[in-house]
Design goal:
The structure is a single chain. The protein is α/β, with parallel strands linked by helices and 412 residues long. It folds into three domains: 7-69, Arc Repressor Mutant, subunit A; 73-150, Rossmann fold, CATH 3.40.50.11410; 198-391, no CATH class. Helix content is 38%, strand content 17%. It is built from 16 helices and 18 strands. The protein has helices at 7-18, 25-31, 39-51, 86-97, 130-140, 162-165, 197-201, 232-245, 262-270, 287-299, 318-330, 342-345, 349-358, 361-364, 369-378, 380-396, and strands at residues 22-24, 55-59, 65-69, 73-78, 101-106, 119-123, 146-150, 180-182, 185-186, 205-206, 220-223, 248-251, 272-273, 278-280, 306-311, 334-339, 401-402, 405-406. The protein has a four-stranded parallel beta sheet, with helices on both faces. It has a four-stranded parallel beta sheet with strand order 8-11-12-13, covered by helices on one side. A three-stranded antiparallel beta sheet has the order 1-3-2. Strand 17 (401-402) and strand 18 (405-406) form a beta hairpin.
């Protein structure tokens, strides 16, 4: 404890330690009622601690105020992540281990009262949101002493310090997250013109195994590796760990089917999969490798997978994109079409129709692209949708029945 502190000030700091760095003045007064001389001395002690940099004191009128230990209150801002933000979960774990009070704010709008925080981290994933994220960081910096802005949307080079990167993620930060997630590799051997991974992470290397981020409460594990097949021995290690623990596995970023062989396919078959395996086909020139990979999968009993298909990418034409999707359909594989520069691309309605058709799985296998377009433009799709809504509503609220007859069937 710092020299020169009064007995009351020491008591303040001890209570704040017990309260994980944050307490209301009302709670402090209640806990110190036997030792507190008077109201004036109470607030003088708080102001003195504030001047010394030990605490921050936020006055809030009639309800008293909030007292926080310096750097004891951390604001995490998940600006635009579509899935739980792994970096923020590691930051949360690190600050929780230090006894800090952590709050997650999701989305670009910050609730009132952010002034009480001592440090803030903002994560922006998509570059389209970079300007808004920088504006938010500027606003927060007017009241928060330390503001950090990162994420692939604003900076490809900023990374977490090693001691934080190695932390077990705080999965409680996202209550809906019922799976573990993380990287066992970083980087990639490919240099696709549309991909940020080579610039952000460099060449491929192994960085972890499942035990560094698997929470044993979870039976599913989501891998964020970009090309684990490029390290065959490491893939065998990870696959065998998953098999040993009986986990459902999801390689969320997709596997490189060009590097698939019988040994890898045999391991994939042994893994409990919670959904289709995911691969990618972004260039029509890879057709031979894709067909060969699908044959290997089928030979090992894996009949259907999902393929990420980039459409409108550099050097591709609509005919190339439609050919890839149709080929996968003929081979019995599902598609997830990913538009390159969606807003600009969808000015050409052909790409919009391709996106809607391929990504609607119940339609993808029962009608062709041409049939889908004809139904859409003729209004048949709207009619079908209305009939489907009516059918669902009828199933939810069937007509009342009396003695085995529906009301609408009784003759009056």
């Amino acid at each position: 404890m710092s020299r020169g502190l009064s007995r009351q000030q020491i008591a303040f700091l001890d209570i704040l330690d017990e309260k994980h760095g944050m307490s209301t003045t009302t709670t402090l007064k209640t806990m110190l009622k036997n030792t507190m001389k008077n109201k004036q001395s109470f607030y003088r002690s708080l102001q003195s601690l504030e001047k010394r940099g030990e605490i921050r004191f936020y006055r809030s009128g009639r309800v008293g105020g909030l007292v926080c230990k310096k750097h004891g209150n951390v604001l995490l801002v998940d600006f635009d992540s579509m899935i739980p933000n792994l970096a923020l979960m590691k930051l949360s774990a690190w600050h929780n281990a230090k006894g800090d009070n952590v709050l997650l704010q999701r989305g670009p709008k910050i609730a009132d009262g952010f002034e009480k925080y001592d440090i803030a981290y903002i994560s922006c994933v998509f570059s389209t949101n970079a300007r808004a994220a920088r504006r938010l960081a500027k606003i927060l910096s007017t009241s928060i002493e330390e503001v950090h802005l990162g994420g692939s949307g604003v900076d490809l080079k900023t990374t977490l310090p090693d001691e934080i990167e190695r932390m077990m993620p705080d999965y409680d930060l996202y209550p809906e997250c019922d799976y573990s997630m993380g990287h066992t590799t970083r980087g990639c051997i490919r240099k696709c013109p549309f991909c940020i991974v080579p610039t952000k992470e460099g060449s491929i290397r192994a960085v972890a195994d499942i035990y560094q981020f698997w929470d044993r409460r979870h039976k599913k594990i989501v891998f964020l590796d970009n090309n684990i097949f490029a390290l065959p021995e490491h893939f065998k290690l990870i696959a065998n760990q998953v098999i040993k623990e009986g986990l459902h596995a999801d390689w969320n970023q997709g596997l490189d089917i060009r590097l698939l062989d019988d040994e890898k396919a045999a391991l994939l078959k042994k893994i409990r999969k919670s959904e289709y395996l995911k691969f990618a086909w972004d260039d029509v020139k890879s057709e031979a490798s894709v067909r060969r990979g699908i044959e290997i999968l089928k030979a090992h009993g894996i009949k259907k997978s999902t393929f990420y298909v980039l459409i409108g990418g550099p050097g591709s034409t609509f005919e190339d994109c439609l050919y890839r999707v149709n080929t996968l359909r003929e081979l019995g594989q599902a598609c997830y079409v990913m538009p390159y520069n969606k807003e600009e691309l969808f000015q050409d309605r052909r790409y919009f129709y391709l996106f809607r058709w391929a990504n609607t799985r119940q339609l993808f296998f029962i009608c062709t692209y041409e049939e889908f377009v004809n139904n859409w433009e003729s209004g048949e799709r709207n009619k079908m949708a209305a009939e489907r809504r009516k059918r669902i509503e009828t199933e939810k609220h069937p007509p009342p029945v009396i003695h085995g007859y529906e009301f609408n069937s009784i003759e009056i």
